[in-house]
Amino acid sequence: MGNRLDLLSREYLESPHAHLTELRRRGPVVQVDPGGMWLVTRYEEAQQVLKSASLFSSQGLRASAQPAWLQRVNPFADSLLFLDPPQHGRLRALVSRAFAPAALARLEARIRGVAREHVAGMMNQKNVDFVDAFAMPIPATVMGWLLGLDASLHQRFNRWANDLVTMSGVRPEDTGAMARYHQTLEEMERYFQGVLDDRRDAPRDDMASDLLRAQVEGEALTNHELLSFLYLLLVAGLETTVNLLNQCALVFSQHPELLLRLREDPALIPRFIEETLRYEPSVMATLRLCTQDVTLAGVELPRGALVLVSLASANRDEKYFPDGDRFILEREGPQRLSFGHGPHFCMGAMLSRLEARVALEEFVSRVERLELRTDHLDWTTALLVRGPVTLPVEVFAPESGQPVTARIA
Ligand code: HEM
């Protein structure tokens, strides 16, 4: 490993954890590329940065959504994810109702129906791309319901969300990718503007209509703020949960005995989800910007420095997660940082846990074994999120072919 590791290099993207272990050994705050940003590798320092918005601003994250080469406004880059208190808190309150436990409980039966249908589809085909057959359609359908979008446009939503989170990985010479991102933003704007115009004329029971009615300090949201919300929720709610499900499938392929244990005892599924989130978090890192000169763990960071908080590394910090490179279903330990920490803590944490639990309950009730059908996986090229581009697998039903649904209903 050279002196400064490039987090967009192929060697890092293919096996980040070995590199992160080495970086943690070097110290809690180490300089990396691209751009000589500072990587926070350990749990305590990661928490410290994430809860101190006045020293470490979320404007740092904005650079990933509004790169210099992008010659147009990206409404996503103006969403609450990139704002600091107090402006952040006022906007956050507007959407929190939609994620309240009662609202989520009403979704469970519908999610189960969709998951059941996709497990059945997978069992019919046997050899599938897991991303396309299972991991993507469930969260895409749920986000479609919540936002009031046309669920039949799954593939398109997924491409949009994927494009928005991979923008940070574009190399300066890759003009083809830049043109594609421009086109994506135009398509998204046309589509979401249409949704807002429709709901202005005929409100429905969805978030787009709620947001149109919402007021901050007596004023309605501007059209740009409305678009920003819709972009954020689509991106935050899709790619992340898709990759959580992908990672669950990868764990099943590496540890077939765990799939059998979950079939025996589906009550272990929430534990399995928590350990998967720790072991392979779909949001690998988040960015902050130093608002003033600051010393972090003895390292002097100048005002304006970019700080990349590695959630993946903090989740394997030896001090809190001994033997962190092992997947241990019974693992205890402090709260994982997979959903962040502090004022920007993920608003969809309960929703994604619900989606994953119901999806896996349906999955383990019908599938006894899942095998990977490739020797090599391609991973998304992005600084902040991680997931396989495709996941060719073969799924096997138990000999008897009998689902074990009785224990779950
Ligand atoms: C496995 C699934 C998910 C993971 C790992 C995840 C992870 C995260 C993380 C790490 C943050 C904090 C980013 C930061 O501090 O800069 C975040 C924020 C956020 N997430 Fe999630 N997320 C997931 C699913 C979802 C879902 C399903 C939704 C909604 C439908 C959602 C909505 C949000 C929103 C709105 C924020 C911004 C909160 C704020 O800025 O105050 N997330 N998420």
TrEMBL record:
This is Cytochrome P450. It comes from the Bacteria. The lineage of its organism: Bacteria, Pseudomonadati, Myxococcota, Myxococcia, Myxococcales. Belongs to the cytochrome P450 family. Signal peptide: none annotated. Pfam families: p450. GO terms for molecular function: heme binding; iron ion binding; monooxygenase activity; oxidoreductase activity, acting on paired donors, with incorporation or reduction of molecular oxygen. PROSITE patterns: CYTOCHROME_P450 (PS00086). The keyword Metal-binding applies. Keywords: Heme, Iron, Metal-binding, Monooxygenase, Oxidoreductase. SUPFAM superfamilies: Cytochrome P450 (SSF48264). It comes from Myxococcus fulvus. Gene3D superfamilies: Cytochrome P450 (1.10.630.10). The keyword Oxidoreductase applies.
